[in-house]
Design brief:
6-stranded antiparallel beta sheet, 7-stranded antiparallel beta sheet, globular, 2 domains, about 20% helix, alpha+beta, Jelly Rolls
């Protein structure tokens, strides 16, 4: 006989822990308050990932380069393509990784659009087109196996909280919640059926 209680427990565990081992690149440990860097024009490395020479980390809060929301997503810091052009992110030492999502916005109301691209051995394997807005927006990517991530644009942008090496979701968040509700419904139905059966046998 199927144990619905165990099934529901497993379903809940799967839904809420599928991304628990992801790394989130937040740029929070690279510079101090009010700073831009860590070395303008040379790129930088954060949490084992290398960012191209046009990228800088910067303080986006009121103690730094305050614009629009005056905050980053994770804390106070984000990254900016300070010299224009595309952002390129690769793993230190090479190798493949996955990218689940990131937060993106424009810089000083430049607006425009961008294409976020996942590459493997120089070939595009996944891409997402986005508009750059004045407020932070999460961009769901679910790039499964790439060795480079690029944000391709002619505009200036800021990026934060790049989530990598978690589990690539095959279903959307609404679908995940629907699965959870179905699980609860099945558990409730089974419990009610068992209660009715017990009452009839008494």
């Amino acid at each position: 006989m199927l144990n619905y209680k165990k099934l529901l427990t497993l379903l809940t565990f799967f839904l809420f822990t599928s991304n628990s081992h992801a790394t989130v690149i937040t740029f929070d440990q690279l510079i101090g308050p009010g700073q831009v860097g860590p070395s303008s024009g040379n790129g930088f490395t954060d949490l084992g990932f290398i960012f191209s020479r046009n990228m800088d980390a910067l303080d986006l809060s009121q103690t730094g380069w305050c614009y629009a929301q005056c905050t980053a997503v994770s804390d106070k810091f984000g990254a900016l393509n300070n010299y224009g052009g595309n952002m390129i992110m690769t793993m230190q030492g090479g190798g493949v990784f996955s990218v689940q999502d990131l937060w993106l916005r424009d810089w000083f109301s430049n607006g425009g659009s961008a294409t976020i691209v996942g590459l493997l051995n120089g070939s595009v394997v996944s891409s997402v087109n986005v508009n750059l807005n004045t407020i932070w927006e999460i961009i769901v990517l679910n790039f499964a196996t790439v060795d480079a991530l690029e944000i391709r644009t002619d505009y200036i942008f800021t990026v934060d909280s790049i989530r990598v090496n978690g589990q690539v979701s095959q279903v959307s968040e609404p679908a995940s919640m629907a699965m959870l509700l179905i699980g609860f419904g099945a558990f409730g139905f089974a419990a009610r059926k068992r209660k009715n059966s017990t009452t009839q046998n008494a």
